[in-house]
Specification:
Blueprint lengths: L13 H15 L9 H14 L3 E6 L3 E7 L2 E11 L26 H17 L5 E9 L8 H6 L8 E12 L3 E2 L4 E3 L1 E10 L3 E2 L9 H17 L8 E10 L5 E2 L2 E10 L2 H21 L3 E10 L2 E2 L2 H15 L4 E2 L11 H6 L2 E9 L3
Parallel strand pairs: 3-4, 3-5, 5-16, 6-15
Antiparallel strand pairs: 1-2, 2-4, 6-16, 7-14, 8-12, 8-13, 9-11, 10-12
Length: 359
């Protein structure tokens, strides 16, 4: 890739910058939770309609908004995705555009993603004569619940699409840098529940009980051997058991314990194998100790994996904007992202946009 020093990079257009700031602040002030992005969707649809997009569809996969802009030259069709939902957090920052919705905040940058997509749509709509093919904008609900991508895909948002592109503003990457991994970007992320069942009774008569706490303790320890003894040491895997609850009193043997955890890995086949093994190990230990175990796969997303050729194109494009010295590689991240479903269905690229605050 040819080197483009920062000194050769063009300055951002003042009007573009102002549009981005305005959209971002207006959206930041009015966050909505997953699948409740009604006003957010209205804001987006109203502005897309004003641009004169070729096709505008609302209510896609819930509250999703989809807009097509067709170029006047032949070419491929590309989908650009921007997520819309906020988080159930209270904003404490004392800024004029702070959240006006109590207990809800854009703390994960989705306001930035939407602002960028809206401004890109405006730019492309004004330059249709230069645009080859078609660009479809998918404003997606419920990324935070890992539930919004699949309903949009099931509703047909990828029909006629050749490539997919998405981004995430990243607070751990310096502002002005862009990270474009050529392969794995983020891990799979699965949440699961194990319900360990025994038989409750008085602590003075343990022989008449089946202690669910004892069973759960052995399950917790054994599940870590799936990482240390059943997985290659060069294959990153994390099993976290973040919640263990059981029992009602100090002198009563618990009849039930609920364990909640997550599984993260970069390998799709290893993900399937370990989800099955978590259930098998828990059931095996519980059965040996006269109890039982129920496994529930609560939610999950596959690994986010870029197409190397498309990642290279994105890197080249980013180099022309921020300079080649600011386009960096990044290690795969153990967080999850439901843009992975788009990348499972179509070749594409998911990249990180630096947003670290100075100091």
């Amino acid at each position: 890739m040819a080197s483009t020093p920062r000194s050769a990079v063009r300055e951002p257009d003042a009007a573009v910058t102002q549009h981005l700031i305005t959209h971002r602040r207006e959206l930041h002030a009015a966050p909505e939770l997953s699948f409740k992005e009604v006003e957010t969707a209205h804001y987006i649809a109203e502005r897309l309609d004003a641009l004169g997009v070729d096709k505008l569809t609302q209510g896609v996969g819930g509250t999703g908004v989809v807009a097509d802009i067709r170029g006047e030259r032949p070419g491929r069709s590309v989908l650009v995705r921007a997520d819309m939902d906020g988080l159930p957090l209270t904003e404490t920052a004392d800024v004029p555009f702070r959240s006006t919705h109590a207990g809800v905040m854009h703390a994960c940058g989705h306001d930035v993603h939407m602002a960028i997509a809206l401004e890109l749509a405006r730019t492309l709509s004004e330059r249709r004569h230069e645009l080859p093919g078609m660009v479809r904008f998918a404003f997606q609900p419920a990324e935070e619940q890992a539930g919004g991508a699949k309903p949009m895909i099931d509703a047909g948002v990828l029909e006629g699409i050749d490539r997919v592109v998405g981004l995430h503003v990243w607070s751990q990457l310096p502002t002005g840098q862009v990270a474009v991994p050529p392969g794995v970007v983020m891990a799979s992320a699965d949440m699961f529940t194990l319900i360990i069942r025994g038989r409750s009774g008085h602590g003075a008569q343990p022989n008449l009980t089946i202690d669910a706490v004892v069973i759960a303790a052995q399950v917790v320890t054994a599940l870590q051997t799936l990482v240390s003894r059943e997985t290659s040491p060069v294959a990153p895997v994390v099993i976290t058991l973040g919640s263990v609850h059981g029992g009602t009193a100090a002198n009563i043997v618990a009849g039930e314990v609920v364990i909640q955890g997550t599984l993260r890995t970069f390998d799709a086949e290893l993900r399937r194998h370990l989800l099955a093994r978590i259930a098998q190990v828990a059931e095996g230990i519980a059965g040996t100790l006269r109890g039982s175990s129920e496994f529930r796969h609560d939610s999950g997303t596959p690994p986010t994996i870029n197409d190397p050729a498309i990642a290279r194109l994105v890197s080249e494009a980013a180099s022309g904007v921020v300079g080649s010295d600011a386009v960096v590689m990044s290690d795969p991240l153990m967080v999850g992202e439901d843009f992975a479903y788009f990348l499972e269905a179509r070749p594409g690229c998911f990249f990180l946009l630096g947003g670290a605050s100075e100091g």
